[in-house]
Amino acid sequence: MLDTAFGNTILYNPINTFVYCIVGSKIDALEKGLTWVSEHAHVTLPTVPEDVLLLSPESSKELAAPLADAAVGGDDGDGGAVGKLVEHFEKALKAEQMLYGTLLAVYGLVFCAGLAVVIWHSGGKERYAKWQATRGGGDGGGDTDPAVVQA
Q1: For residues 95 and 100, what is the distance between their CA atoms, to the nearest angstrom?
Q2: Four-CA torsion 13, 16, 18, 23, nearest 10 degrees
Q3: Which residue, 24, 43, 109, 126, has fewest beta-carbon neighbours within 10 Å?
Q4: Helices H, strands E: what count in the chain?
Q5: Residue 151: pLDDT band with limits 50, 70, 90
Q6: Is the pTM of this model over 0.85?
């Protein structure tokens, strides 16, 4: 890579020396260290018989019982770690359920108000005026009963 970039220039030797100082010397030291480790580090481990790590069913149940009791609860009625976690999530969900129910109710009210505005502006005002006129209150200014007007 350095040959293609700086091959026939005056900067080739200084750049080559700089790159060797930064990268090359570290690679050489790492190579020497790995060579020493491969030549001098001889480790021999004894083999373990296969049946040493096997457990009988009784001893595995004896070892697993305290872990299972702590996780899912034992005979004393507590729910263990899993039960406590489930209870915590149930409480959180109930609180969120109330919040989301309230928000849904507010959304429903806003929707109904918007629907009423749309109906009013898309002909509801005229229908209301016609309905008022058929009832005898066309001016909307109060009671137009003839007996009341003459008095």
Answers
A1: 9
A2: -170
A3: 43
A4: 7, 0
A5: very low
A6: no
